[in-house]
Design a protein that fits this description.
By secondary structure, this protein is mainly α. It is built from 14 helices and two strands. It has two domains: about 120 residues, no CATH class; about 120 residues, Leucine-rich Repeat Variant, CATH 1.25.10.10. The chain has a two-stranded antiparallel sheet with strand order 1-2.
Length: about 250
């Protein structure tokens, strides 16, 4: 392929990327802002690895924007691979293109989803409806992250307890169990489902469930001897592995 033809192809691809970007910007709708910067800008400042001061400023912005951020976060959480993302992948896949010579800033669907979850985490209890819907997301890691965010809200996430129970009954997942435990005594309606989960054959899962039950109601250690038995098994297993830690640490690998 001649140099002139390669240049023409590169020009067409770059122009196409610019057109797609303009179209997406035009149709996605205006975002709420804080101090003249868009919600998307502030969400980027919550990314891992950035200075803490920068993140704190972003959290202040999210808190100020409040409920106005929710429609945008919902849309980001359900993001699919965009046309510009597909075009970029194909462009970099061309044999004559060197990634070091062409750099396009394209936010992937996964990055959008991660930023949405961080945003929900900052917004706290007003994000519970969005996090509850995320428990049913087709991506398992999103379900896990949503459950963890709900658990971080402790008793404030009591409205999410029914959804967490339904999700736990639908699939075995330690993130859901841990969230119920962290919600604490206000999650007592989860006790029957958790008690049933104690029948599972996986010791690590049973340890996780037993810890959640004790967090919800410490008195269950007296009325349900099986809880103490499982926790003792966990402590013995921890000692076998030379671990000086409570048995719930054994569940962290899941």
């Amino acid at each position: 392929m001649s140099t002139k033809k390669r240049r023409s192809i590169k020009f067409v691809v770059v122009a196409l990327l610019m057109v797609v970007g303009v179209m997406i910007f035009a149709f996605k709708g205006a975002e709420p802002t804080y101090q003249g910067k868009s919600l998307t800008h502030w969400l980027r400042d919550l990314d891992d690895g950035l200075p803490q001061e920068q993140k704190q400023k972003a959290e202040e912005a999210l808190t100020s924007i409040g409920v106005r951020a929710l429609p945008v976060l919902d849309r980001m959480l359900n993001a699919r691979e965009s046309p510009e993302e597909r075009i970029t992948h194909r462009f970099y896949g061309l044999p004559f293109v060197e990634p070091t010579n062409f750099t396009f800033s394209v936010t992937s669907a996964r990055e959008k989803q991660q930023r949405a979850l961080r945003g929900y985490g900052v917004l706290g209890t007003i994000a519970i409806p969005g996090l509850t819907r995320a428990l049913n997301h087709e991506e398992g890691w999103i379900c896990d992250s949503a459950a963890s965010r709900l658990g971080e809200l402790s008793a404030g996430a009591v409205d999410a307890v029914p959804a967490l129970i339904r999700s736990m009954e639908g699939r075995k997942n330690m993130s859901l169990v841990r969230a119920l435990g962290k919600i604490g005594s206000t999650a007592k309606e989860a006790i029957p489902a958790l008690t049933e989960a104690m029948r599972d054959k996986d010791l690590h899962y049973r340890i996780c469930v037993a810890n959640a039950l004790v967090q919800i109601d410490p008195g269950l250690r007296v009325t349900h001897p099986s809880i103490n038995e499982v926790l003792t098994e966990g402590e013995n297993l921890a000692r076998q592995h030379g671990m000086r830690a409570p048995p719930e640490v054994l569940t962290k690998r899941f």
